Amino acid sequence: MAEAQTKCPKCGAAYPSGHQMCVRCGTRLPGATGSTGAGEGSGKAAGSIFHRGQVVANRYTVIDMIGRGGMGCIYKVRDNTLDEDVALKTLLPKFTNDRHVVDRFFNEARIARQLSHPNIIRVHDIGMAGTVVYISMEYVQGRSLREWLDSIPPGQRMPVSYALRLMIQLSAALEFAHKFTVHRDLKPENVMITSEGKVKLMDFGISKLKSSVQLTSAQMVMGTPKYMSPEQLKDSSSVDHRSDIYALGAMLYELLTGNVPAGLARQPSEIRRETPPALDAVVSKCLALDPDDRYQNAGELRTELQRLLDSVERNSGIEIPEFEVPVVPAARGASILRRIGGGVLAALLLASAAIGVWQLERSESGKAAGAAEEAASAAVPREDPFALAFADLTARVNRAREMAAGAEGPAAFAAEGGAFWEQAQGLAARREADAFQAGWFALECYLGPVICPDGMVFVPPGETVVERGADPVFVDGFFIDEHEVNNGRFRAFALDGAHPWPMPDYLGGARLTEELLLSPVVGVTFYDALAYAARTQPAPWATCSLPTEAQWARAACGGPGTPRPYPWGAEWSPGAASAAGEADSYPGAAPVGIFELDTSPFGCRDVAGNVMEWTRSVFVSPYDPAVAEKGLEDIWFGSALAVRGGCYTDERSAVTERRSAWFDEASPLIGFRCVLPFPADSETIDELLR
Fold first, then answer.
1. What is the arithmetic mean of pLDDT over 20-36?
2. I need a labelling partner for 111 at 20 to 30 A (CA). Which of 8, 70, 276, 429 fits?
3. CATH code: domain of residue 116
4. What distance in Å separates the CA atoms of residue 121 and residue 138, rounded to the nearest whole number?
5. Hey, which of 18-32, 101-115, 636-650 has the most confident mean pLDDT?
6. Would you state the pLDDT for residue 327?
């Protein structure tokens, strides 16, 4: 039976039912909903299928809902037959008529039921209650590795020994699982860590049993892009266990450095000094482009990791059983402190630690300290940690203000900085934690324009409206490319001898005019754009990424006041941007930056014309920041991403318009620009302030 097709009403191109946008002309297809596809959706839309106290399938009493996504919910329930708490993973009723989705859902249960291992979550039962299909599985008291990583304060990293311990357990799980299956979607979200520190691998939903006929959906590129091996990006159906080895290497790199390895050439020991150089070789071997050059089985990798762990603990003389993240008791305070820049948070934590150490040393030294103790005591500030931390922040803000005042031009955001700093001082007088957040925003306003890399513009912290009618969202300060990435820059990236990357066919021809090289690159997938950004480092403190949709909206539209539909005003002006028609004198995209009127309030060019641009936000309509801005880990084979900006095929596209595209679409209408985060650690800030 032929698969249902949807035709583009503009150019007639045919696509499988459910496709969001025509990759030829950019037209939204009939029936496009703006949903995020199979991978993720609005939590609010998903809703709750069961309620507390409800008995499901005459067996499970619902205790609480513990997770929710675009395809279903996960509940903590009491299994009245086994007399224990278990997790019930459900599929939303609207998906039960989709054979491929249900097959994939039950495929997880079929595979996991054969995998009895201490580091793999057990599956008990599969079944149906009314229109809801479910899997009951082991309930784990703990949190995912992603949640664990997100809770680490800025500027800190997981201890090397603990990273090795986690990866050893994960390797052991895969060593056993690979006798039956290939996981194909290893990522921190699919790794649970119990309260005792034990690793539990879960979600074998896109795995394939070695003895089974592959699912139809396995023909697709399935997995999570930043952890996928090169061969998996091409065809998920043909990968073997060595693709999981690659994903393990990507996760280990992230645990050690805080970054993902896509496009990054630096070794972990170059980023983090306490990383043993021998670990660089292990990571590199896992991430080898050719599967034959990787570890050939998880057991081999586990043995090497154990050897390194023994060496690390032997050389350090200590053994770290676990790494505890400082917890702020008040929920509101915890949320605020996590948003504060690394320098301020580190100062607060270090000030508290310094006083504690000083008091301990003083009590232990006793009477024998003598005059030396008195001198040391006099040198120790007696202020409390809050005052010490705010004093450090004050010194940084004052220095940044001096630098901004002495520079030409970059004092543009001095007024905003002054307003934030006045707010910070008032909050500090009342000893409210929000003082550090407001003070950090003042620092960004003063220092951002001074340290802005060439070719980028600084966007100060503030609110923006992502979608008309939606509530404003706050965006921290950041840097963004003034222009869209052009063909010349992308071609140079793709032809890098050390790290070559596929490029659009039109860039491989012999006739490359100057106008073409200066025009925005198109025909690149989301992952192509992400790889380019990850290998771009215009400043020493970080590599680039793609903007979130909120960042793009802030850079293009400005503040939360009624957004102007066009950078130059409320009415369309023919010839003001590279758009449809002959007024701009270009039949297609134009060289970047030549339309002066098409400039955002912060200096971004070509936001109303030229080409649409990738963001790294999942597309959800209506806009919901809790879903859209989760992070790269939520972008996988079923995700539709938000693309923003006008296009040369549009007659008069407002910069406030939202569109979507699948992450693997290589559209001739979509390009991108990069963003760079504001420095987040105290050492970098202090170096820049010197």
1. 44
2. 70
3. 3.30.200.20
4. 6
5. 636-650
6. 30
Domain boundary among 138, 157, 172: 138
Do residue 337 and residue 312 come from a single domain?
Answer: no
- In a 13 Å sphere around the CA of 397, the CA atoms on its Cβ side amount to 28
Quote the Cα angle for 395-156-526, to 5°.
105
Q: What is the mean pLDDT of residues 458-471?
A: 91
In a domain, 690, yes or no: no
Cβ contact 282:304 at 8 Å: yes
Which residue(s) pair with 129 in the sheet?
132
For residue 264, what pLDDT band results from cuts at 50, 70 and 90? low
Q: Are 554 and 566 in contact (CB under 8 A)?
A: no
Contacts for 46-50: CB closer than 8 Å, 24+ residues apart: 46/70, 46/71, 46/72, 46/73, 46/92, 48/73, 49/73, 49/90, 49/92, 49/93, 49/132, 50/75, 50/90, 50/132
Could you tell me which of 378, 372, 256 has the C-alpha nearest to residue 312? 256
Residues involved in catalysis: 185
Mapping DSSP onto H, E and C, the string for 14-48 reads EEECCCCECCCCCCECCCCCCCCCCCCCCHHHHCC
Residue 321: inside a domain: no
- 100 and 223 assigned to the same domain: no
Quick check: is 596 in a domain?
Answer: yes
DSSP SS3 for 497:
coil
Lay out the sheet containing 191-194: strands in order across. 142-144, 191-194, 199-201
Answer yes or no: are the C-beta atoms of 219 and 118 closer than 8 Å. Answer: no
Contact 655, 607 (CB under 8 A): yes
Lowest mean pLDDT across 273-282, 341-350, 392-401, 647-656: 341-350
Does 155 lie in the same domain as 124?
no
275-296 pLDDT, tens digit each: 899 999 999 999 998 999 999 9
What are the residues whose beta carbons fall under 8 Å from the beta carbon of 283, sequence distance 6 or more?
249, 252, 253, 256, 261, 267, 268
CA distance 381 to 391: 11
Distance CA 134, CA 490 (A): 46
Q: How many CB atoms lie within 10 A of CB 268?
A: 26
Task: Quote the Cα angle for 604-500-231, to 5°.
Answer: 110
Choose one of 275, 290, 316: the last residue of a domain: 316
| Residue 684 located in a structural domain | no
Residues 6+ apart with CB under 8 A from 355: 380, 384, 385
Task: Give yes or no for residue 667 having a pLDDT over 60.
Answer: yes
More confident site: 126 or 475:
475
> What is the C-alpha separation between 548 and 649, in angstroms, rounded?
24
Does residue 14 sit in the same domain as residue 99? no
Helix, strand, coil proportions of the chain in percent (round to 5)? 40, 15, 45
Together in a domain, 64 and 6: no
Which band of pLDDT confidence, cut at 50, 70 and 90, is reported for residue 551? very high
Find how far residue 349's CA is from the centre of its chain: 26
Orientation of helix 385-406 relative to helix 682-689, angle to 10°? 40
* 265, 379: one domain: no
Residue 5 CB neighbour total at 10 angstroms: 11
Cβ(151)–Cβ(160) below 8 Å: no
Q: 134 and 149 share a domain?
A: no
Residues 469 and 369 grouped into a single domain: no
